[in-house]
Amino acid sequence: MDRREFITHSAAAIAATSVLLSACKKNEQRNASLPLEGELEGGTMTYRTNPNTGDKVSILGFGMMRLPVEAGGTARENPDSPIDQDAVNEMVDYALAHGVNYFDTSPAYCQGLSEQSTGIALARHPRNSYFIATKLSNFSPDTWSAKESKAMFERSLQYLQTDYVDYLLLHGIGMRGGGKNAMEMFYERYMDNGILDWLVKQKKKGRIRNLGFSYHGDAKMFDMLLRWHDEGKYHWDFVQIELNYLEWNYGNEINPRNTDAEYLYDELSKRGIPVVIMEPLLGGRLAHQPDAITAKMREKDSRYSPAAWAFRFAGSPKGVLSVLSGMTYLEHLKENVTTYSPLVPLTDDEKQWLLTLAKDIYELKTIPCTSCNYCMPCPYGLNIPGIFAHYNKCIAEGTMPSVDGKDNEYQRNRRAFLVGYDRAVPSVRQADHCIGCDHCVSHCPQRINIPKEMQRIDRFVEQLRQANS
Fold first, then answer.
1. How far apart are CA 377 and CA 417, in angstroms?
2. HSE toward the beta carbon, residue 411, CA cutoff 13 A
3. Could you give the CA distance from residue 383 to residue 353 in angstroms, rounded to a whole number?
């Protein structure tokens, strides 16, 4: 099932899901009475208090967007494989036993099946032992009507097996789509159809405890929404933003459509609006650093992995309620629980050091590809993720030949790059076959200008091939 099919599914699909939920009742009944097992590793989970409700929220939030599937990996990698519900149950049990109580999902995650899987796993535990965050993910124009948007919210409650949502977000504000710019799309999704006002009414009824939005865009719309908050037009109980030490000052440089995290955080902090963090690892990029950067981190403090440094940065600012991590495997969950049990906040010195390191990372000019394969298949046969992976690998290993050809290792690095390129990517699938059709661009969640990068890499490769050996 793809995202569009899920968002616009029929009553028959709802009935099918009801069968799925019913089939899991036996497992729920069998497992509901089991005690939570496992001792806290490294200490006690750090919690932050929501000033609006008094909720004690775990600083580590479980992002339910990369759930494991039975074929291995995630639904993104194996979209036809069912979610491995036993593995999800095991991770949710471990998370709750080790202090994680914030679970973030969406109708759009995991080919549209994340909410069902999350609901099955959480319903085996007392409702007051966790907080559910989900979203009104009405991206498709087919869901912009009041009827369809309301139906999406009602399905979320059904799938999550609850009669209220602790944290509801307007999903992906600032994004564009459906032939609309960001502002037009926002008004179509939430204002012209009266849905935002309807959600406010649901909050008054107790069906939503906290209402907020997740943001991906420039400062213009963000400022407008906060102005509404200041004027009392709408009250935002929390806001979810991208925040990591690379996008703190380079968010706009990495993606011209985005805003630096420092600005977003500061504006929310001024108003005392709780902040939920997404992309603390920038799609996994900050967990896998070039060797030279990793060595600097190890020298600074060998106790912390690159991922731990990034998680500490994201969790340290005052007012951060929870930091989301999309975890597929239990070992990732265990590592992240350890990092935040308890959180050791960054010192001022460590923060400035990380921001200096961010400048070094940014200037490496790696391509922020996460190998999600959304851009594939290419109509002209290019192996887009493979090309980017080889390019980034040479940067990470410090073997990228210099552009001017003046470094002492130029000839060796030049040969290694070309030989490795031909081995990693067959010649008929390399960058020189890109015609700039732009078919891939709209599918890239990192918003990479793929044709432009292909042209740049092709020019670089041609320069290397023509260089005198």
1. 25
2. 3
3. 37
The long-range contacts involving 229-237, CB below 8 angstroms and separated by at least 24 positions, are 229/271, 229/273, 230/271, 234/196, 234/200, 235/211, 236/211, 236/212, 236/273, 237/50, 237/52, 237/167, 237/210, 237/211, 237/212, 237/273, 237/274
Chain centroid to Cα 56, Å, comes to 23
> Token pair of 28, please?
């729920």
What does the pLDDT profile of the chain (469 residues) look like in tens digits? 333 333 334 333 333 343 344 334 333 333 332 333 333 344 799 999 999 999 999 999 999 999 999 999 998 888 899 999 999 999 999 999 999 999 999 999 999 999 999 999 999 999 999 999 999 999 999 999 999 999 999 999 999 999 999 999 999 999 887 778 999 999 999 999 999 999 999 999 999 999 999 999 989 999 999 999 999 999 999 999 999 999 999 988 877 788 999 999 999 999 999 999 999 998 888 988 877 888 899 999 999 999 999 999 999 999 999 999 999 999 999 999 999 999 999 999 999 999 999 998 887 777 888 888 889 999 999 999 999 999 988 887 778 887 766 667 888 889 999 999 999 999 999 999 999 999 999 888 778 999 999 999 999 999 999 886 5
DSSP 193-239: TSHHHHHHHHHHTTSEEEEEEEE-S-HHHHHHHHHHHHHTSS--SEE
Q: What are phi and psi of 101, to 5 degrees?
A: -130, 10
Cβ pair 217, 182 in contact under 8 A: yes
pTM of the model: 0.79
Within 59-109, strands assigned E span 60-63, 102-104
155 φ/ψ angles, rounded to the nearest 5 degrees: -65, -35
Sign of the dihedral defined by the CA atoms of residues 100, 105, 110, 113, in that order: positive
416-421 long-range contacts, CB within 8 A, separation 24+:
417/464, 418/461, 418/464, 418/465, 420/390, 420/393, 420/394, 421/390, 421/461
